[in-house]
Amino acid sequence: MKPVVSSFQAYCCFITSCFGIVILSVIAYLFYTESESFMGSINDPENGKEVAKTILNAVIIYFVFFLFCGTQIWLIKRQNRIQL
Prior knowledge:
Layout: H1 7-32, H2 36-39, H3 48-81
């Protein structure tokens, strides 16, 4: 199997996905627990648990990209070792 993207793109996507998963998970947790800093203003959403579920859907998408890019990195490293 050959990689679909270049090495730079795979690493960039991998690192971005890592940060996205961590940051969005923390934000989802804060909305789920209805933290004062996220739910205390007049313009904030009424139902923090629903917002947290929506953010967790984004975390799942980032996790899929994380797996895809990790696989691409593995394929690129494997391809560089194979020489005829």
